[in-house]
Each structure stands twice: as structure tokens, then as C-alpha cells.
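queue> pop job 88
queue> type: inverse folding (structure -> sequence)
queue> payload:
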């Protein structure tokens, strides 16, 4: 401790801030559950450390207001006392955050926590001029009345994530005026009941479309026509069955570079001369497992009308897919992580400029299927084996094949059958990631 005590306070607080991976949960009142976690643990080391982390505003500017993981705390308090204590701590943490921009993570699902919701949200709304990022995950839209005062008072908000349907018209435009908002995640969205945002200034948008009637009511072209500055656009869908899309003229999105869709037919919606990355998240995995996913026609049509160059393709699907010949693709990502069946083989011989291939999957399932898929890809790309490399055989353009293995263990063992593939083909590398 003698050496540690000599560390200047300004250095200590920067170290603490870098270690602060999780935001502070205002609703967790039983400190015994979190005393071993950062930042609370440092307060038990010495008075100097406690003073340092208590007095550094950025540590207190990232707050979680959640009624899901705080159930253990709430059991030992009666509702009125619990609400008062949450409000007291929230006020204290906001005071400690000074004028630093706030990062908020608000998750309210219980119908039995109204005692503290109103007070807490009103308190946060009073600080809306300091919101930088805000994440709302709400089971019901009742709490939204408590943040109505922040309407028109969001000068620093840059990122908004909201999972809640805006069924009541008087709350739909809470975030309509936010001059610095550029990134948004909205779930679900429809023109009649969705949120109204400053669409024209967004550069990144993730949108879950609300049912098939979104297409039937032509909500999509209405929205696309406002996304003048969008660079990254990702669509998800809350309906398992695909029954086709309404046809409409492609919308020009001149700044769009990254696009994610859940069906190739969605590419017909766009004219995007700057587009260079396409992600396919297949919504038909369960019902149409046996049917190949054919993306060649739609991609070729998009490239022809947009004069764009697609350099990266990504697939999250358990189906076999056909890409055809795409001369500009340099990187291919295939995500088998959620596949519960045999992983289909990958033929990449039609991608002449492919340099990087990434395969993502779970380490616990179907290793033999992964080996077959991997070796088929290597052979189709004419990647030289270790013996061919040593003999001076001309190499393919494929520079690296990364196999990303997701698992539940901290330090998993890579199966020998996979390591044997890397022994034979030097371009193959493995990396593991905690699920």
C-alpha cells in the first residue's frame, strides 16, 4: 500500500474510469450484493481511493435504472421506503456527476414499481440537457408521461435506443427535436404508432419493422425518403413468416455505406452508389431450412442500378446460400452461431478477390459439420496446404480464415479435429469469445 498511496489522485481516477465497464445501478440498494464489484470495491481499500472515485464525475455519469435485477433489494424494503431511497441515491449520483454528459440505461418491466418510477424519471428529465446516450427498454408506455418535460430540451443527445411502442400520440414526438442525434435503435416502428425522430440528420439507424402491415401501408418508402444522411441502416423484423414485399421505386440514399436486411428482396428498395457492405440476417431459418438463400440476382441488380462496389458480405443463416460471381467482394462473414442443424458447405470459388473469410459458430455443437464446411471453403478457394506452401506452389488471394468460436467457458479447449485443419492450412486461425 505504501507505493500505491503515492499514486497521484488524478492518475487514480483515470484508472478507475477505465475500469468502470458497467454503469451504476441506482435501484440496487443492498450494497452487499455489489461490494466486490467496481467501483464500490475500491472504496474499501483506503480513504484516498474512496475519495478519488467519489469525486470523479465521469464515473457517476453512467447510470442504470432497472426494476429487473433489483428484486433482491426491493424485497427488504416496503414500497414507499424503497421509492424514497432510490430517489435519494439517484439525486446523490446526479450531484456527483456534476455537469458531465449522462449515459442512461432505463429498463422498466414490472407493473409493481410505480412508486419510484415517476419520481426517478422526472428527476432524470430535469437533467435532459445533459443526456448524451439514452436506452429505454419499457414493458408499458405509461412511464413515458414522466419524461414528457424533456421534449425540446435534448441539446446533447447523440444516441437513442428505445424498445417500446408509442401508442399514445402525445408522447410520439418526445425526441423529434434533438439537434445532435445521429444514432438510433427503434423497436418496433410503424408510421401510425412509431416514434417521430429527426430522421434527416441520422447517420446510423437500426429499425425493427412492426409486422407485415408496415409493408402493406407503404410505411417503408415514407421513411426512406427522409434518410438523407444515413450511412448505416439495419432492418430487423418481428414476424417469423415472410409473405413478400410491396414493390415501389428504389429510394436514392447517396451516403449509405452499410446495409442489413433480413431478405434479399429488400435490396430492391435502394439505390445506393456508396454502398460497400451488405449483411443478411435470414428470417426464414425455421420454416424454409431446406431452401437455398439466393442473393445473386438481387445483389447484381443493386450493383447495376447503383454503380456501387460491394466489398463485404455477411450472412447469419443456417441455410445454404448462393452468391454467384461478385468481382469486388474482399471479405465474407458467415455466422452459424444460432444454427442448430448441420452447417451447410460454403463454396467461395465465385469470389475472385476474396481476401478475408470469417466463420462464427458455437464451439459446443456439431464440430464435424464445421470442419466439413471449413475444408470445403478452403478447397473451393484453392487455398494451398502447408506442404504446397513449402514447395512454392502459387497461393490464392485468401489471406486469412478466422474461425470465431463462441462458448460459455473462460478458457475453452479447441477440439483437436479443428486444430488439425489449421495444421494443414496455415491461413486458418482460431479465436474464442465468451457467449
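queue> result:
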Amino acid at each position: 500500500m505504501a507505493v500505491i498511496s503515492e499514486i497521484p489522485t488524478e492518475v487514480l481516477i483515470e484508472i478507475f474510469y477505465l475500469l468502470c465497464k458497467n454503469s451504476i445501478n441506482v435501484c440496487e440498494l443492498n450494497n452487499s450484493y455489489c461490494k466486490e464489484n467496481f467501483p464500490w470495491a475500491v472504496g474499501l481499500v483506503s480513504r484516498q481511493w474512496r475519495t478519488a472515485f467519489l469525486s470523479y464525475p465521469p464515473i457517476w455519469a453512467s447510470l442504470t435504472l432497472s426494476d429487473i435485477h433489483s428484486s433482491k433489494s426491493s424485497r427488504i424494503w416496503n414500497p414507499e421506503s424503497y421509492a424514497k431511497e432510490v430517489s435519494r441515491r439517484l439525486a446523490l449520483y446526479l450531484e456527483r456527476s456534476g455537469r458531465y454528459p449522462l449515459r442512461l440505461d432505463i429498463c422498466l418491466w414490472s407493473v409493481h414499481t410505480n412508486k419510484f418510477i415517476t419520481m426517478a424519471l422526472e428527476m432524470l428529465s430535469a437533467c435532459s440537457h445533459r443526456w448524451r446516450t439514452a436506452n429505454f427498454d419499457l414493458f408499458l408506455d405509461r412511464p413515458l408521461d414522466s419524461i414528457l418535460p424533456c421534449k425540446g430540451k435534448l441539446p446533447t443527445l447523440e444516441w437513442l435506443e428505445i424498445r417500446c411502442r408509442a401508442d399514445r400520440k402525445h408522447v410520439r414526438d418526445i425526441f423529434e427535436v434533438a439537434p445532435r442525434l445521429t444514432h438510433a435503435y427503434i423497436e418496433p416502428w410503424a408510421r401510425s404508432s412509431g416514434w417521430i425522430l429527426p430522421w434527416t440528420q441520422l447517420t446510423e439507424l437500426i429499425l425493427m419493422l412492426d409486422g407485415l402491415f408496415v409493408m402493406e401501408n407503404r410505411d417503408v418508402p415514407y421513411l426512406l425518403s427522409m434518410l438523407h444522411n444515413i450511412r448505416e441502416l439495419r432492418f430487423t423484423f418481428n414476424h417469423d413468416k415472410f409473405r413478400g414485399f410491396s414493390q415501389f421505386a428504389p429510394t436514392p440514399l447517396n451516403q449509405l455505406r452499410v446495409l442489413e436486411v433480413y431478405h434479399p428482396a429488400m435490396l430492391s428498395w435502394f439505390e445506393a452508389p456508396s454502398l460497400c457492405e451488405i449483411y443478411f440476417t435470414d428470417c426464414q431459418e425455421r420454416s424454409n431450412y431446406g431452401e437455398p438463400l439466393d442473393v445473386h440476382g438481387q445483389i447484381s441488380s443493386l450493383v447495376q442500378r447503383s454503380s456501387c462496389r460491394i466489398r463485404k458480405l455477411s450472412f447469419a443463416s443456417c441455410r445454404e446460400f448462393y452468391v454467384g460471381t461478385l468481382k469486388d467482394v474482399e471479405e465474407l462473414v458467415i455466422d452459424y452461431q444460432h444454427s442448430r442443424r448441420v452447417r451447410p458447405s460454403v463454396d467461395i470459388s465465385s469470389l475472385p478477390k476474396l481476401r478475408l473469410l470469417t466463420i462464427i459458430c458455437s464451439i459446443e455443437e456439431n464440430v464435424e459439420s464445421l470442419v466439413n464446411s471449413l475444408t470445403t471453403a478452403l478447397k473451393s478457394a484453392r487455398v494451398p496446404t502447408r506442404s504446397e506452401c513449402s514447395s512454392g506452389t502459387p497461393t490464392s488471394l485468401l489471406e486469412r480464415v478466422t474461425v470465431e468460436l463462441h462458448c460459455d467457458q473462460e478458457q475453452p479447449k479447441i477440439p483437436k479435429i479443428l486444430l488439425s485443419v489449421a495444421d494443414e492450412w496455415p491461413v486458418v486461425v482460431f479465436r474464442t469469445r465468451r457467449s
